[in-house]
Amino acid sequence: MYDAIIIGGGPGGYVSAIRLSQLGKKVALIEKSLIGGTCTNVGCIPTKAILTAAHLYTDIKEKAKKFGINVENVGFDLSGIMKHMSKSVTMSRKGIEYLLKKNNVDLYYGKAIIKDTTHVLIENENRIIEGRNIVLAHGSIPTIFPPFDTVPNIWTSDDVFKMTELPESIAIIGGGVIGIEFATFFSALGVNVTIVEIAEHILPYEDKDVSEEIKKALKKNKVKILEKTKVEKISFNNNEYVLKTTGENKEETITAKKVLVAVGRKPNIPDDVKALGLKIERGIVTDKTLKTSIDNIYAIGDIRGQIMLAHVAMYEGIVAAHNIAGDKKEMDYTAVPSIIFSNPEVASVGLKEKDVVNQEEIKIFKFPVSANGRARTMEERIGFAKVIAHKETGKILGLTIVSPSATDMIMEGVIAIKYGLTAEQLADSIHPHPTLTETLLGAFEGIENLAIHI
Prior knowledge:
Distance between the termini: 64 Å
Strand content: 15-25%
CATH superfamily of the largest domain: FAD/NAD(P)-binding domain
Largest sheet: 7 strands, mixed
CATH architecture of the largest domain: 3-Layer(bba) Sandwich
Helix content: 25-40%
Oligomer: single chain
């Protein structure tokens, strides 16, 4: 008998399996398709691989001459970009398989069907295994809805990675994280891109000033952005899609060779999971230990339908593992970083300016990337670091960064918010010079009314 059977080998599932094994438990991990789940195979890793290529191409085109580098006839080969992407995915997948083997996790490939609260059938092997606990890590699937579900060959994010040639034009439905990352990629390679976003602005979960900075960057690549706009009707005629949209007091027709629906993902909850009788709202409901309404069944990652990010799934997997092993550990979601691999990158953690309730209690300071010495050496001017702090205590409540390497720099904010650090404490920490992290230093100094470089 296993101590735990984990269903789903994505970021949450494989991390949970390894941690359980490290804690001395006997673990089975069942994956129906490819180890690594959405993130490794059709999400984080392939997206960042193709975006790295696109960013490099953009830098060469826009900066080489300014840096005194002579590059003639610069171009790109899509098949080479896709080959790089495939290699990145394969290496990540093999790395996970190696780690599971190293940690003595029994890995089964096949469709898992839960028979009862302790037995799981591995369908293709016609084999039933038994476990004291079951961890649901089924992940998510792309969301597609009317009118897009009635027209053939509409792309979701999963389909982009199968392309063999670039479309001349693409309409991206949804200006959230997925939509903006793909808009960045396609526009960098010269595709005519239109983004249709129903909310007030693109990146609706970020502050408006973040949206405005990313709009500047996208418009440099001639991306058309329609905000507060809804697609009412779509048809496919003469080898192109025709989209009828309505916005503020106006209607517009868009044509594109491809349409990508990028409005997020929804929890993957199969019938055997539903049959258990678990409490389900948008996703599987759990407590802070990741336990469901059934004592020995846990749920982690996207199947919960809450914060659907790979790094959150990983940590949920660790918390679930410790609780199964007899430790007491609870999830803390107060310092979850959000990251977007646009160009420049976006990263945020904690309180957003748009969510501030009592303006009297907080102080906000924004330091521009254009005032950073390292950014000037890189020919980067778009962006800022914005700090939200408690006015009296100086305690950091939120940090938003729009900058090259923002996705790496955000960890300073994560640690500050998680451990209750103040702007003064962070400003008193020596930041290396010349680096982009000094943009953060300038923002922390600004909270103290002591900014030097602005």
